[in-house]
Amino acid sequence: MAQIADKRRWLVVGLVFVAIVLNYVDRQILALLKPTLQLEFDWTDRDYSHMASAFQFAAALAFLGTGWFIDRVGLRWGFAIGVGVWSLAGMAHAFATTVSGFVASRAVLGAAESIGTPAAVKTAATYFNAKERSFVLGLGGIAPNVGAILTPLLIPLMALMWGWQATFLIAGGLGLVWVVVWLMVRIPEQPNAERDAAAPKIAWSSLLRDRRQWAVILGKALTDQVWWFLLFFMPDLFHRLFGLTQGTLGLPVAFVYFMAALGGITGGYLPSYLMGRRGWTVNAARKTTMLIYALLILPVPLLVGVDSAWVAAMILGLALFAHQGFSTNIFGLTTDVFPARIVGSAIGIGAFAGNLSGMAMIEFAGWSLDTGRGYLPMMLVCAGTYLVALAAIHLILPRIVAVDEEEDGEVQVLAH
């Protein structure tokens, strides 16, 4: 793929990074304010699970269209529209007073925020070559964790100072400021844009007959459920198991996501090192890296038996370190095997599957907690699902073969 010499491509990466940070601030606020809002509105755990599931289900459905939307409309306007809508939806939470009001706000937020993943992956696939791409994806993998680190440190304090309504309004307003800055910046022309526009369109039916797509679908479905479950329930876990209040749970939660950020960095660096410095094939580098992370998450069920919140934070930190490293390589796998012009659609379909599995895990958590079974059942799922995901990817793609970035041929359907 022809490279853009223009240094503005790094400015684009920086702005996408900030958008994903804001994305995770908006989606995590409700989890952090759960103790306060649950007391004020008398929610049950299943009420909260339904709110989180509304986000997941709306995002899952939207992922079927946002990848296509980004591929067709382009990054500039497509991303601006998505961020604008999700910011307004985040602000709408301030005016909700019923469970149904919060469910509606979460649903719109989830649908709009689904634009973030295909936009970030398409940025990497469009403006960077295969070796640079893993680094850029690893950098992009840090953004959710930066948002997840800042949110527990700032949101509880903001809520104590100004109230929970103002907290939602301020967080959403920052997204609207981002939209203005994004539209003011002249995004560099996409390389090979004329070629991609003239290339034959790829029907989703073709993607769904492609075994590469199913490797992405299963990889996302089996692992995203862990991320979504912990994102929505981690503050409650520290509150329920260790008695931490809204004002004291910020530091351990922030530590967990700091570890997750390190996982995203290493997940991008390790395969790049193995391919660039050690001469490994894409297949060997990707699968070895994923195996390492799949093994690192195995101890996570131990946290339900510890007495210290900080010991639990270290166990959860290792788990999300492993998740982000593994997840970065699923994104890398997608850009390895699909050409840039359809990578948004490919990752969108995978994210659809990941959000549905996340919704199922969230509902399972609500049921488990309401019926007195606690957090152990979810922890056991978290421990084993990455090895299952890697086995599924290997069975579907015994050998990962990267697409030739200089060729403009149609997607080769590999169904057998």
What characteristics describe this protein?
416 residues, 15 helices, globular, disordered N terminus, MFS_trans_sf, hexuronate transmembrane transporter activity, transmembrane helix
Could you walk me through the main structural features you see in this protein, from its secondary elements to its overall organization?
- This protein is mostly helical and 416 residues long.
- The chain has one domain (9-186, 204-396): Up-down Bundle (Growth Hormone, Chain: A), CATH 1.20.1250.20.
- It contains 15 helices and no strands.
- The protein has helices spanning 8-41, 45-73, 75-92, 99-113, 116-127, 130-162, 164-184, 193-198, 204-208, 211-242, 250-276, 282-296, 309-337, 340-370, 376-396.
- Helix 1 packs across helix 10 (211-242) and helix 10 packs antiparallel against helix 13.
- The chain is globular, with a radius of gyration of 20 Å.
- The protein starts with 7 loop residues before the first helix and ends in a 20-residue tail after the last helix.
- The model is unreliable at 1-5, 192-196 and 405-416 (pLDDT under 50).
- Its main location: membrane.
- It is a multi-pass membrane protein.
- The chain crosses the membrane at residues 51-70, 77-96, 108-128, 135-155, 161-185, 214-234, 249-270, 291-322, 342-362, 374-397.
Shape: globular
Low-confidence stretches: 1-5, 192-196, 405-416
Return the average pLDDT rounded to an integer.
84
Helix-strand topology string: HHHHHHHHHHHHHHH
Question: How far do the termini sit from each other?
Answer: 29 Å
CATH superfamily: MFS general substrate transporter like domains
Oligomer: single chain
Query: At CATH's second level, what is the architecture?
Result: Up-down Bundle
Overall strand count:
0
**Roughly how many Å is the radius of gyration?**
20 Å
* Percent helix range: over 70%
